[in-house]
Structures are given as C-alpha cells and as structure tokens.
C-alpha cells in the first residue's frame, strides 16, 4: 500500500507528490492524460507571481506582501479568503529555491513582458520545461507515475479517504491529494453553469478551452455528490479574450491577443462596451473573456492602428490588415457605417496627453461612454489591424473548501487524510478575476502544503494500524 496517492499530473499535483516524497512517504501519482499530454494546464504557463522585499535574480525592485494582497483584492473584488491568500503570497517568496532544486530554471522576462519583471518570475522554456523538470525529479526520487489513469471516484468512510477507483480497479492508500483540475473541458457543465442569455443564446457553446482537454471535473463532481464542502461560482473562471481562430483545446499562451489596451474593442454590432485602458494589462487581461462572453454571439474585435505595432507581444496569427477603416470593417464582417462612426467618435474624444504604456498615463477620452481612462490615442494612422476574439477558458473557480492545511471539508469538518490543491481549490483565493501568474502561485503553495500534510497523515495512519 502506498502512503500517499496524488490524483492529477500538473503543477499542484507534482508539487504535492515531490513534497510528500521528500517527507519520507511512498507516493503514487495518477495522471489522467497519456504521457505525451501530461501536465494539465501547467504545460501552457510561463511564470508565477512572487512576493519579494528586495531584488532577486530575475526579479527587479521589490513586490511586498501588502502590494500583492492589494492587487489580489482589486481583481477579485474582495472575493477571497485573506488567511489563505496570504499563505499563498508568503509562500511565493520562498518557493523558487525549492523549485530550482527540482531542476526548474528561471529567466528574465522577454521584452514584450517587461511590465511584469517586478512581480513575476518566468520559467526558462515555459511551463512545458517546468513540468518536465518536475517529472524528472519525481522519477529520480522514486515517485511511481501512472499515465492514462483517470480516477473517477473515491472510496470514503465518514469523511476519511480509503481508496481511489479507476473504473473497476481499486487502489488503497493511507492519504490522498486531489489535484485533478477544474471542469473547463466539460462542455455540458459549462453550458449548465452559464445557462441561456436574454437573447436565447447558450454562451458556453462559443467558448474555446485554452488548456487541457482532460479537465472534465469528474472528481470535483464526485466530491460534491459525496457531500464535500464547496466554494465558488460555477460561472467564474480564468477567462481570456483569445484569437477566435484558436483550436478548441490546448491553444495555450500563443492564442492570447495582448493589444486590447492599445486600441478599442467592438462587439459584432460595431460598438464599444468596456474601458480598454482601465488598468495594466496583466491585471485586466483575464476579465476580457467574460466581457466578450456577455456580448452578442460571444465575439469581440480588437482594433488598433500602426502606432500600436511593436508595443505588445504579437499573437501567433496575424490580424486582418487594411488601409482604411471601411476596408477593415468589411474584412472583419462588421457593419461598416456603425464601425466607422464608433471609431470617429472615439478619436474625437481622445484628449491630448503624454502616452506611456508603462504607467497609468494621462491619455484618456472625454465625453465618451464607456470612457477609455488611459492609453487613449486616436486610431488614425494606417495600416489598421483587427483581431476577432472569443472567450478562452483557462480554468474554473468552483472548487472544494479548504483550511490552512489544504484539508477537504465535510459539513465544516476537515478530513484527516484527504487534501486538495491547485484548480480544485483555487476558488478559495480567486472568487473572481485574475492577475498574471497567481494561479501558479496558488498551485505551488497549496501543492506543497497538501503534500506535506498528506505525508504526515499517512504516518499517523500507519501508526494507528500498528498500535
């Protein structure tokens, strides 16, 4: 019998498995995906958000705890558990040394991401390299790894873990960590969560999934049915406006369109619907998927001119290009008259100022609804570019309620040997909204916490058995 079984194969699961093994436990890791697709959504990540009081290798200046906390409060609108959030924040200041011991390497951010050089540490080679390093470390340490092993249920007894089940196979262990992701790849569940809008549309039918196809929410649904305490709104998620030409699954980071704050965004009727310059892009990019999801047909269009080129990380797919606004409207399939009228009204409303995309500058609109509060430059210099946008779901926030030890709760009581980490509990910290890199901070912090306490629980269970 294994001491600890970890269900999942992404960042949080691997952090749990490695930590439990370091603590002396025998560990089995069960990954639903085949080996070539291992890693869940973590394979598509680039960085994690890190608190630090002084400059540290790839991190410049400082990013103290209180600033990190205020950033989180702002994006979540206060829908966060402060105690658990501060655990994540403090853990983010010390985790990189441990990560380096597992073979993870860091690099300074690329030029298109310099605005997060102070707050985020970037993985050399991205999320795929991070995942590969963790798997190599796990194998060297003796963690037993099984691929293509989707756990569909648990055997529980009075809120305590007994065994996992993969179809008809039963695997007992002394403790368990659940880190199997959210339900973003389950189209039926997304449809149910979002429902119909006033126009009779089912918004989720037009969603694209930025990450793994294997996050079906099977274990989350099982745990809800088993009476585990849950937290979060099923319609809330890390939801980004991505290129409408992206694949249904696994488009990853390269499908993001990062020029939103440098231009305007229109819906299919050729009208603006939100302030594109509300705040820095890393603090606002993850609200735009939800905003687009609330528009007719769940589609939007990011419009820029040649002045924006070179000021953002270019997407993998080129946008539509035209030398007049009328021509661009036709190429995008938008109503030309309304399109041009919207752009002209925006241009007239832009006030003179000093443009600086590295600060909250004084370039804003006046007498326009919705306003653009920063980085408002007229769109008047051809060629013009347009990118069609769809909602891209990264991960969902509905999850299991936890405490400081990452324990799963039943009727308010923590289980003594069942723990949860990563997307399956991120809703404790992220009630809504997102800021770049915080998902990896949550997964790393609570993965290690869950692994540590699972190892302790397994030791207790072994002692009980021999007493």
Short summary of the structure?
The protein has 467 residues and is of the alpha/beta class. It has helices at residues 11-22, 65-76, 82-92, 95-101, 126-141, 187-194, 218-225, 281-284, 288-293, 325-332, 336-349, 438-466, and strands spanning 2-7, 27-30, 47-49, 106-107, 120-123, 144-146, 153-157, 160-166, 169-178, 208-209, 230-231, 237-243, 264-267, 300-305, 320-322, 384-396, 399-400, 407-410, 413-420. It folds into two domains: 2-182 and 217-236 and 397-466, FAD/NAD(P)-binding domain, CATH 3.50.50.60; 238-392, Succinate dehydrogenase/fumarate reductase flavoprotein, catalytic domain (Flavocytochrome C3, Chain A, domain 1, Alpha-Beta Complex).
Q: Which SSEs are present, and which pair or pack?
A:
Elements (H helix, E strand, L loop, with lengths): L1 E6 L3 H12 L4 E4 L16 E3 L15 H12 L5 H11 L2 H7 L4 E2 L12 E4 L2 H16 L2 E3 L6 E5 L2 E7 L2 E10 L8 H8 L13 E2 L8 H8 L4 E2 L5 E7 L20 E4 L13 H4 L3 H6 L6 E6 L14 E3 L2 H8 L3 H14 L34 E13 L2 E2 L6 E4 L2 E8 L17 H29 L1
Parallel strand pairs: 1-2, 1-9, 2-6, 9-19, 10-16
Antiparallel strand pairs: 3-5, 4-5, 7-8, 8-9, 11-17, 12-16, 13-14, 14-16, 15-16, 18-19
Pfam family, one: FAD_binding_2
Organism: Serratia aquatilis
Cofactor: FAD
What does this structure look like?
- The protein is an alpha/beta fold and 467 residues long.
- It has 2 domains: 2-182 and 217-236 and 397-466, FAD/NAD(P)-binding domain; 238-392, Succinate dehydrogenase/fumarate reductase flavoprotein, catalytic domain (Flavocytochrome C3, Chain A, domain 1), CATH 3.90.700.10.
- It has helices spanning 11-22, 65-76, 82-92, 95-101, 126-141, 187-194, 218-225, 281-284, 288-293, 325-332, 336-349, 438-466, and strands at 2-7, 27-30, 47-49, 106-107, 120-123, 144-146, 153-157, 160-166, 169-178, 208-209, 230-231, 237-243, 264-267, 300-305, 320-322, 384-396, 399-400, 407-410, 413-420.
- The strands form 4 sheets. Strands 1, 2, 6, 7, 8, 9, 18 and 19 form an 8-stranded mixed sheet that branches. Strands 10, 12, 13, 14, 15 and 16 form a 6-stranded mixed sheet that branches. It has a 3-stranded antiparallel sheet with strand order 3-5-4.
- Helix 2 (65-76) crosses helix 3.
- The protein is elongated and about 80 Å long.
- 53% of the residues are buried.
